Amino acid sequence: MSLTIPGRMNLWIVGLPEGEERGQPVSFFENRLPQFLGLQIESSQLQIESAYWIAVHRSAPVRILQNQGLPADNYSTENAILVKMSNNWPLLIDPQGQARSWITKMEGQELLILLATDPGYTKLLESAIRMGYPVLLHELTEQIDPGLRPVLVREIYSREGQDYIRIGNKEVEYNSNFRLYMTTRISNPNFLPAVCNLVTLINCTVTFEGLQEQLLSRVVKRQHPQVEEQLGQLLQSIANDLVTLRDLENKSLSLFQKTEGHILDDQDLIDTLQQSKEMSKEIKLRVEASEENERKIMAARKKYLPMATRGSVMYFVMDELAKLNCMYQFSLHWFMRIFTESVSDMHKPHTRRPQARFTGRSNEFRNLTSSSAKMHIGFRSYLQNMMNTLTDNTYKVHIQHPALASSFPTAA
Question: What is the pTM of this model?
């Protein structure tokens, strides 16, 4: 979306156009940017062109990354794009361990996980460079091993058609499939400028919106596992169709480039283009149907958004407790366990659950949020009880610590 301010600037905003649904709250940045810049914007001055983030989130590469465990918020998508597209190897600030979890799922079994504090990790790194395996070097400190410099700056040279890199006193064959990821659990590291120049420094600290989306997925998976499963299937289907559509477009362009003489005289080219055109129409219709089903599922998931919001608030409140006493530091993994237990402790209310029907290859999901499937009158109290259970389970842990309990006023 672009804002054209007459006589001042053409401002590009990474956000959604007004009225667009995406199943999660609009971020503070999207709402407050014009106020932050001090712009007096009137409707006549706005020229809304394209929804950049809608195009990004619906693109095939981002869909695939989200299916591999990437959180669906904008911040995580930006970080993933930096990881995949940056020229330097990424160094991820990852205090909650979410980036490490995503990279592990994305790279699969070939990923070699090395501990930066292990004195013998360089031998395994050399083997990975030679074989072309991806490497995750985690638990980095603020002092980076000087032996990594040739790898970070990619001091690669060729001899007799083979690429080499020198690590210490060893000459190692360099495989172009090699990939390096580095993570640190230090939330606010002080890296030297020389280190920052060698890597792409990416802050992967969990955000409020990102955690909210993850908690929403977790509570829906517990309460209505079929809905979350259908959402995963839809996202995978959309990603596969978008990849196929892109391949067809590239194939058509390739055929145009390779044809010789008059295009109309090449019957094979015409037949291939006709088949590609029909298949492209079919895929586009299937993608549109899948995206419509996705919006319905997201609307059904949104019923549990207050629970996800409460969980996100609770986590960030606890994260601030370390300022009161350094011994009260809670991991995201621990909070996820408390959250899951709080959801599991509650019994489902007696609601009329809509039935899903799939028709044809488009797997149409119908009647999930139809007007006939009204929410049970007791759902609001059920949801409130669930949120209260989460609050109680969280504070039970805190009250067990006298030092922390003394920091809060006692009710009369």
Answer: 0.66
